[in-house]
Design goal:
Elements: H1 2-36, E1 51-54, H2 56-66, H3 68-88, E2 94-105, E3 136-151, H4 155-221, H5 227-261, E4 268-271, H6 296-316, E5 322-334, E6 351-361, H7 366-435, H8 441-475, H9 480-491
Length: about 500
């Protein structure tokens, strides 16, 4: 009766294990199917041409939404966040279940089997025999193991800290990428405006040269000037046309740069000038926007140092004992009839056991390996610190150069109206002198070139002030003050 009760208990235990395994397998099936599913790729970028009219603020916002490098950096930031979750799972206990059915011979010898790296030799148990027979019987094994690391002296926490510092580094990298994308879009926008103003200046120069060429031809036809003057006038007209063509080419190229910088390569982007061709309002505080140590590049390098320090702290916590709580319950069955009658010829387990205990693990010889790894990590910290110092040097240089550019751009913008007026007066007088025969065609051509250069310089001088202010904002790690200044100038009626 007791034997039958034992058989029933073992069978119930086996059926419970099987039911539990099926439940886990069934419950994890959708997740597994989801994990095995192929990742969905974004559709390829459309090759069609879009037409879009944008202000500089809209161009920057479009770049933030569409530029691929920002999407990639955002995905890397999310990945770093998931790595924190993975690191936290080390706090969870471990539970494993095993079911085995085998048919094997029972030729057992007394002896020792050393730990195996490749797990080639199976483990056998039972009384030894003197012969080697190849008749086989069924064997069954079923068991479940539960283990939990109780004490690790901060190793798992240090690993989570490494993951957190990695997330901080990913966020800093995203902010730096965002700053680069926004600044490049704004700078390309300003360059488009400058290129268009140059086209207008060269177009006006061409019209004046054509008008002057007609006057020269008229004088030459009347015999008042030599024929070479007409040839020189025609050459100046051709040079003006070539200059206009070059300006149009440069404008088309920078328009393509603008389209690419906002994530719409190949599109036709029309720009709204707004206040960018007028002098910006005076803002004395614009030169001191913020602390350079808060620049995304400085924060990125600082977080790289923090990651290396966190890894060193993790290594410090690696050479410590580890205390585990371990428990197991298992049952075995065998078709060997020499000791006890089997259940279902050994297919089903018969004898069940359980065990509960503590395990103290101390990897003593890992000390030398960990010490060598700590030397490597300390060198990495020094290298990362040097990169941080180098980044700060670069930011200080960029800030100083941006301020110089801003001061000189303002000075040039104040002087160009005087230059244009003087060049215009010089060109008018040169023409009059040529008409009355007091000078030659070369002087008039030179006066036209001086006026053309002056008008081009005046057309772009104010935009260069805005460009220098953008560079100053970039050096301080945030172009939002620049964009707010654009909006403020727009509200105040800043027009060219």
């Amino acid at each position: 009766m007791k034997g039958g009760y034992c058989h029933v208990s073992v069978l119930n235990f086996v059926f419970c294990l099987v039911a539990f395994g099926l439940q886990i397998a069934t419950g994890s099936q959708p997740a597994q199917a989801q994990d095995d599913a192929k990742p969905e790729l974004r559709p390829p970028l459309a090759a069609s041409v879009y037409k879009l009219t944008v202000t500089i603020n809209e161009a920057v916002e479009t770049a933030k939404k569409r530029y691929p490098s920002l999407s990639r950096s955002d995905s890397e930031t999310k990945l770093a966040g998931h790595e924190i979750t993975v690191a936290k799972t080390q706090y969870l206990p471990r539970m494993d279940m095993l079911l085995q059915e085998a048919r094997a011979t029972q030729n057992v010898n007394a002896g020792t089997i050393l730990p195996q790296f490749l797990n080639v030799i199976p483990i056998q148990s039972g009384p030894g025999v003197n012969t080697s027979k190849f008749s086989s019987i069924f064997n069954s094994n079923a068991g479940m193991n539960f283990s939990w690391e109780l004490i690790d002296f901060g190793k798992r926490k240090a690993n989570v800290t490494v993951a957190r510092r990695g997330q901080d580094r990913a966020k800093a990298s995203y902010n730096l990428t965002s700053l680069d994308v926004e600044t490049r879009a704004a700078d390309s926008f300003i360059k488009v405006l400058m290129a268009k103003k140059q086209i207008m200046a060269y177009q006006a120069t061409l019209e004046r040269m054509q008008e002057w060429a007609k006057v020269v031809h008229t004088l030459c036809d009347k015999g008042l000037r030599p024929g070479v003057d007409a040839a020189r006038a025609d050459a100046e007209v051709s040079l003006s046309k070539i200059a206009l063509i070059d300006a149009e080419r440069e404008a088309e190229l920078v328009e393509q740069d603008l389209a690419e910088s906002i994530g719409m390569a190949g599109s036709l982007i029309a720009t709204v000038e707004g206040p960018l061709l007028a002098m910006p309002p005076e803002t004395p505080n614009f030169r001191t926007l913020g602390d350079l140590s808060r620049h995304p590049l400085a924060l990125l390098r600082s977080n790289e140092v923090a990651v290396s320090r966190a890894k060193l702290h993790y290594l410090d916590r690696s050479w410590y004992p580890h205390l585990w709580l371990e428990s197991a319950i298992w049952a075995r069955g065998s078709g060997d009839k020499r000791i006890t009658p089997p259940v279902a010829a050994g297919i089903l387990p018969k004898n069940a056991n359980y065990a509960v205990g503590f395990t103290l693990q101390f990897p003593i010889m890992d000390y030398y390996k960990i010490r060598a790894q700590k030397f490597v990590e300390r060198s990495s910290i020094q290298a990362r610190q040097a990169e941080y110092d180098l980044a700060m040097q670069e930011l200080i240089k960029q800030d100083a150069k941006a301020k110089i550019m801003l001061d000189r751009a303002k000075e040039v913008a104040r002087e160009t109206p005087v230059l244009v007026e003087a060049a215009r007066e010089n060109e008018i007088k040169a023409r009059e002198r040529y008409r009355v025969g007091l000078t030659n065609v070369v002087e008039v051509a030179e006066a036209e070139r001086i006026r053309a250069k002056a008008e081009v310089e005046d057309a772009i001088s104010k935009a260069r002030v805005w460009q220098a202010m953008l560079a100053t904002a970039y050096a301080h790690g945030d172009i939002k003050p620049f964009l707010k200044l654009v909006e403020l100038s727009q509200k105040q009626g800043g027009t060219p």
